[in-house]
Amino acid sequence: MPASRVLYFGCRFFAYFYFEEDKHGFELHELAECSRQFYLGTTAFGSFGGNRDSADTSFEDVAGFQASQALKLIFKAQNAGSGDIDSFKALCTALSATVGTGNIVGVATAIAAGGPGAIFWMWMAAFFGMATKYAEGLLAVKYREVDSKGEIAGGPMFYIKNGMGEKYKWLGTLFALFGVLVAYFGIGTFAQVNSIVEITQMTVGVSPTWTAIILTILVAAITLGGLQSIANAASKIVPAMAVIYFVSTVGVLAYFANQIPMAIETIISNAFTGTAAAGGFAGAGVMLAMRSGIARGVFSNESGLGSAPIVAAAAKTKWPAEQGLISMTGTFIDTIIICTLTGLTIVVSGEWLKGLNGAALTNAAFQDVFPAVGGYMLMVGLVLFAFTTILGWNYYGERCMIYLCGTKGILPYRIIFIALVASGAFLKLEAIWVLADIVNGLMAIPNLIALLALSGVVVRETEKYFDHLKTGKDYEEYEDLDPSLASAKAQPEVEE
Fold first, then answer.
1. CA-based diameter of the chain, in Å?
2. What count of other Cβ atoms lies within 10 Å of the Cβ of residue 26?
3. Could you give the CA distance from residue 409 to residue 311 in angstroms, rounded to a whole number?
4. Sorting pLDDT into bands at 50, 70 and 90, what band is 190?
5. Which of 8, 17, 101, 135 is nearest to 441 (CA)?
6. Running DSSP on this structure, what letter comes out for residue 494?
7. Dihedral angle at the C-alpha atoms of 123, 125, 129, 132, nearest 10 degrees?
8. What is the spatial distance between Cα 37 and Cα 5, in angstroms, rounded to a whole number?
9. Nearest CA to 16 among 30, 4, 6?
10. Confidence at 433, pLDDT banded by 50, 70, 90
11. Which phi-psi region, left, alpha or beta, contains residue 227 (left: φ > 0; alpha: ψ -120 to 50)?
């Protein structure tokens, strides 16, 4: 399939869900074909399928990817290469940015808009997203640099410049610009701050002003210390918050255990039939469920946005594919585990039928089971999720700003970021989600173009790594099979 056609389908796919463009004539079967062809056109099929032609690769082939290997690497990565932080801290920092408001408020918003079927489309977004996240992490390590301060610099802007060539540097600049906008106005500030304000006000009656002041001080204290400070905080907070939220949601599901099979059936059936109006729920068609689920799923796991590779590049590894596998687990943990727990909790409780939305919907589900402490349990989980997302996105935006303006842009960026954190407490939820979806979509497009263009690199690096696992050969023993590099090496050296 021509790359232009793949790119067309991919961009149209994202445009539909982010901007709601071209709804007329964009039927369900066409959308399904769009997603299929886009996925076939990305690097993952070639990566996991080896040298097989992508046309012969099926969804069943992808289901057999090296998931177990990826999960093992979280704790057993070699950490033998150059980098600023170990692979576990890199994953925790990436998770700190992805596991946030989207996992609680975003899931609730998707269900309130599109019904339980939206959860199924979140799973689909994660299925596709694991593959793209793998490619992103791999390319980030492959094409990273060392900046003027001696720190690792990487991400889509660098694999666009170093992988696609200097003539495409403008595309990397465009990505960096959009990345700063997402950090300022999208995932990084407003959505997280607003959720913290809402849950603390609803649960313990703290005024938005005091929440904004406390949050701003904490964010400033950690982010001004740079990556090491953020990574150290994330490696401690992320595992703790994941355990706390897991125990809380499992408690709710255990209470409604007899409702779980019916809830799963409802999720799957409503994904393809829509949800009829009932109680306070206004009803939703298939297309609304699909858009709500995928948009909120991408917002949550950030696969394809190009954010996670910015920190993945800093991992201490010499194997690009190794970090790709580790990065891929972030999408699994974020969406397949945490978003599913939130979604099932809301559906089994029946609270989604009462016309609630956002944090109030998830809070109602918790209080059904834990009337006295349910609100506090959710508050702790949401505050930790949202706070760490702010920290992670501060780093992402900072690296994008350095790419645009150099190190002189760090201090102005941090000051503006902290000011936006303080102001985010006073914005409306609906406007925040619309703004976040727009800037997310803009950020994704340059990254998706790069993934398509560098698909061959992903295949070659994947082959190197899995051959290494069999033979034990060191990375330096492999020749780079990039045809352009190979031809350059073949030229005779000029004697001085």
1. 83
2. 14
3. 19
4. confident
5. 17
6. P
7. 150
8. 9
9. 30
10. low
11. alpha
In sequence order, what DSSP letters do the residues of 461-481 get, joined into one string? HHHHHHHHHHH---GGGSPP-
CA distance 77 to 87: 7
- % of the chain at pLDDT higher than 70: 74
| Amino acid, single-letter form, for residue 303 | S
Give the pLDDT confidence score for residue 495 in this predicted structure.
40
The mean pLDDT of the chain is 76
Q: Which amino acid is at 471?
A: T
pLDDT at 387 exceeding the cut of 50: yes
Token code pair at residue 150: 């001696």
Tokens at residue 405, please? 């303006």
Q: Is 491 helix (H, G, I), strand (E, B) or coil?
A: coil
* Residue of 477, 443, 404, 485 lying closest to 143 (CA atoms): 485
Among 340, 379, 117, 331, residue whose Cα is nearest residue 246: 340
Half-sphere exposure (Cβ direction) of 396: Cα atoms closer than 13 Å: 37
Structure tokens at 265: 């059936």
pLDDT of residue 246: 86
What is the Cα–Cα distance from 334 to 92, expressed in whole angstroms?
Answer: 11
More confident residue, 95 or 156: 156
Domain 42-471 has CATH 1.25.40: no
Give the tokens for residue 415: 């000051």
Taking the C-alpha atoms of residue 252 and residue 234, their distance in angstroms, rounded to an integer, is 27
pLDDT score recorded for residue 132: 87
